[in-house]
Specification:
There is one protein chain. With about 400 residues, the chain is α+β, with helices and mostly antiparallel strands. Among the domains are: about 60 residues; about 70 residues. It has 5 helices and 27 strands. Helix 1 runs antiparallel to helix 2.
């Protein structure tokens, strides 16, 4: 380890070589950062309104959620996309403003509304913020929190725990959450290890192994662009997780110099960094999907995914696999690291080395974010998937804004 390097030891919540707690309404778990030793979204493609694709419905659902959060925050209780591409909207009560907003949804036959939810989404998010501020006090009482997430399907908040609660810790948590729609889940602990995988050099793409000179290994996320042409002639950069390397770190791929970390954000509501791309490299806007052949998954746009969106991860350890988004606005408490808010959670397994890997919508060209951490387990010294897996990451638009980059 170099002097002054920020290095993570195995812990519960870490950027894809991190560990996290199990949560309440949305399954959470102890998350570990998956790095290992060894500005915004652009316009979406046009789609036929008469026969909408799953991607069109997903994008319209995210837009509808944002509108309802703005126009009817007191009655909007949440939105999620079902497996049948039906967009489910929950309201605490029916109002003319909410109905007017719902009428703007372009795919009426794919919309289902329910009335009578006890808590609005704003209330759940407020509880997440309140409980986030309680984490230091809870930890002092022996409550090992990994994640805090709103679960709009059950209209509650899920608090993820790294280990079962003692009687004292349980009482401390109960005192602070009494009367609130909360449940806890335990998912176990996580650790880091070394990993490797064949790369696609000399064409730089997402989903490849990248390392710093100390041998810490992560996954490349996606090619992005920066107005800072002093970085290189075209302003081309590589997006990955902020916990992977430190600012000004030298990064290599396939044993060849790639570039240096030119911007980094790790904490607050984001985990992302941008690495300059040396003029020695060519690049392409594709993602390597190891289980489906060549690096052929094109990515061109950034999106804020909603609950129910498809979610596919490409990592150097677990390869390319898909699930779905299970929660948004999740608080992740990284053991030995920062508490990060506003994250996305899915039901995918990720293991050490997957940190920084791209999350895609799986059906088109949308980047949802780059991998931060998961609730993987260590069994007999081996890293294995949790039976009830969760992974977390900050949304792609947040990553781009924090690193001063874009997808154009």
């Amino acid at each position: 380890m170099k002097p002054g390097k920020e290095r993570q030891t195995p812990r519960r919540l870490r950027p894809t070589h991190c560990v996290w707690l199990a949560t309440v309404a949305v399954a959470t778990a102890v998350v570990a950062l998956l790095q290992v030793p060894v500005s915004g979204a652009s316009t979406s493609p046009a789609t036929s309104a008469g026969n909408p694709s799953a991607t069109s419905i997903d994008l319209a659902a995210s837009a509808l959620s944002a509108k309802l959060e703005q126009t009817a925050p007191d009655v909007f209780a949440g939105l999620w996309v079902g497996a049948d591409n039906v967009v489910h909207v929950a309201l605490t009560t029916e109002t003319s403003v909410a109905q007017l907003t719902l009428s703007s949804f372009p795919y009426a036959s794919n919309l289902s509304t329910s009335i009578g939810a006890p808590y609005s989404e704003a209330t759940l998010n407020s509880l997440v913020s309140q409980f986030t501020s309680d984490i230091p006090r809870w930890e002092a009482a022996g409550v090992d929190v990994s994640t805090i997430a709103p679960d709009v399907k059950s209209d509650s908040v899920v608090i993820g725990l790294a280990s079962p609660l003692s009687d004292t810790a349980s009482q401390a948590l109960a005192n602070d959450t009494a009367g609130s729609p909360v449940r806890t889940e335990v998912s176990g602990a996580i650790g880091d290890t070394v990993c490797n995988r064949t790369a696609c050099y000399p064409q730089l793409q997402g989903g490849l192994a990248i390392l710093d000179t100390s041998g810490f290994e992560c996954t490349s996320g996606a090619i992005v662009h920066s107005p800072n042409t002093n970085v290189n002639a075209a302003g081309d950069e590589l997006l990955t997780a902020g916990h992977c390397f430190t600012l000004n770190d030298t990064v290599v791929q396939g044993g060849v110099f790639l570039g240096t970390v030119v911007s980094r954000a790790y904490g607050g509501n984001v985990d992302a960094e941008a690495v300059s791309i040396s003029s020695l490299w060519g690049w392409a806007p594709q993602i390597c999907a190891y289980t489906t052949g060549p690096c052929s998954q094109t990515v061109a746009y950034a999106a804020n995914p909603a609950v129910g969106w498809p979610d596919c991860l490409s990592g150097i350890t677990t390869g390319y696999h898909c699930g779905q988004v299970t929660a948004t606005n999740v608080t992740v408490n990284i053991t030995g690291g920062p508490t990060i808010t506003g994250m996305v959670m899915d039901n995918l397994c990720s293991l050490p080395g997957d940190s920084g890997g791209p999350h895609l919508d799986g059906t088109s060209v949308y980047l949802e974010g780059v991998q931060t951490g998961s609730n993987y387990q260590v069994v007999n010294g081996n890293n294995v998937c949790n039976p009830n897996p969760n992974s977390v990451y900050s949304p792609a638009p947040t990553d781009l804004a924090a690193t001063g980059t874009n997808m154009n």
